[in-house]
Amino acid sequence: MRISNSLLPPDDLVIKAADEGASRLAQPAVRTVAVALGSLLLGYMFLGRGFDHLGVPPIYVGEVVLAISVVATGYALWRHGVRAAPTRTIWLLLGLMALGAVRTIPFLGVYGLDTLRDATLWGYAVFALVVVVIADRDLVLRAFRAYGWVVPVFAVWLPISYSIFASLSAGIDPRSPGSFVPLVFFKGGDMAVHIVGVVAFLILGNGALLTRSSILLRVVIGVPLVLTAFIAGAANRGALLTIVAGIVIVVLLAPRSRNWLPLLLSAVLLAAGLTVQGALGRGGVAVSPAPTSSPASTSAATPLASPTTDPNVTPSGTGSMGSGQTVPPPARSSGPPPASAAPSIPLPGAIPVANSGFELGSVGGSIPGWTPFGVGTYWIVGGEAHAGAQFAAVNNTRNPFESRLTSSQFPFVAGEDIQVSVWVRAVQGVPAVEVYVDWYDQTGQRISSEFLKRLATNGITAWQEVVGVATAPTNAVRADVLLWEAAGHAAIGFDDVSVRAGEFVPRPPSAKGRPATLGQVIDNILSVFGSSSDAGLEGSKQFRLEWWGTIVNYTVFGNYFWTGKGFGVNLADADGFQATADHSLRAPHSSHFTVLARMGVPGFVLWVLLQAAFGLGLLWALRALRRAGDARLAAAAGWLLAYWIAMMVDTSFDPYLEGPQGGIWFWVVFGMGLVVIRLASRRRTA
Asked: Per-residue pLDDT for 389 more than 50?
């Protein structure tokens, strides 16, 4: 007995091309790739980022399937003579991958696995090439049909997965991401992409609604779909824009389709339910912040500081230096207080630091109140100070982190936040500064050395301010400030060091996330196109705009025009926009700006040309297939186009392509789109 899916059109709508031979799925190697890749995509679709953590570091499920796919495709090329003629779009893709390799390989020895991790932005494009080689018309249509069986299950799963994740992630601290990743990981932007894919399938991939039972079935699917879309849109502006953009594209592709009716009815039912909920005074649904909020959203004005970009360097304490030397504890200008002495409790505000403006001491002489440590020279400079008559200078004559100034110790209250500000300028060469604070307990023992901020002067002789914040440990009673020259073979000037106590480090919000209410959705829309009453939304937007502007300045108008900064370097650290305590933020909240930052303007131009060629080519294929009466393949083309648009929008506000749960899906959709374009071109020339 044959089982049919009422969500799918009848088989007589499928028109096979005359020049299409036997299905490639008959080949074992192709079947192996199809099963492995299909299972991987379903895992990412249903479980999100949590599924990617299956495996043994650094080998995860995505890398395993990639290896299987490459080997099986190579076997199909060798044993069965499978071939795929390159097109202009494929040549653009190969060019992007070649440039990506050029900007990756030189950094492997410096950043190790971080380099490969960042390179997945272009490396996962191998999946697109695999699909182009193995896929034919039959495989594309079978995949499209299989997706139809997944749609109702996924729609019902969406609110369930959200509830599971909200429970599993209740203990996640938004300031320290990466410490725990539940298997079910509901991220608003990722789910928004798949919601658009499901909507596109329901509208474009289905036969006309003919019976009440088919309408009822699609309403049952539509209610959880619309509900989850509402939750995702309220929690995340990128998700909201993704859903809106995707639906607009589907409307343009099928403006008069009857298949919109069940979704409209579902939206009406949801609106009625929310109205009743509001009337009962229960407010909106709480949205968990961890999957959707960016770490920067809580600290746009003063992001947390970044560590040294060299993972082998531990500037303070007794750790390993970049040169392989061991740094002994520095000499102190004054010893710690006796254990019985109770330190004075500073009031919130300014805390006196000895010779903070470097006005004490004679020009050319030593620096009172500060202890020099390491190689090089340390002296007072007269004139051209940021304020006052003189400033301090440190000339590091050797490698990075071999010269520093340490302030005298000062009392500090445990649990308070500290804010350290220092003005710096280049004196000779291209120096950089890293600011640390050492914490001490009542016995005078150092508790820890905490990194605050890094600034690369880029050789600029004008004064620049460096500001970093941290929270004092629970047993801290005293502290001092460390100013490291972090570039090597350069001289740097310091002036106007100020220390304040108060509340500077952002805390997790007391309420879990943003409420799923109509008002929150309106705030999200306003924050995109203008100002919003939500301070968190405004801060997050400003943080991103400032970072994106910085990237444009050092690429389009700066020294990284041709090369970018390459793959491996933590861009958040290098650009001075680190916003997480564990430095897990590595790239700006936009894959497009990541391409610009890491590959320079040539890479960005290639990226834009590639995506434009693909989008226009797929749109042309859709229209050609419709004119030819190939309704089934045309529906698949529209579905892929909607998916691609949704991914392009989401990755504009989120590092969607940098993660396997998004990147692998994207490049598989890209590859299938290239196959559809090829099939449409064959039909035209047949």
From this structure: yes
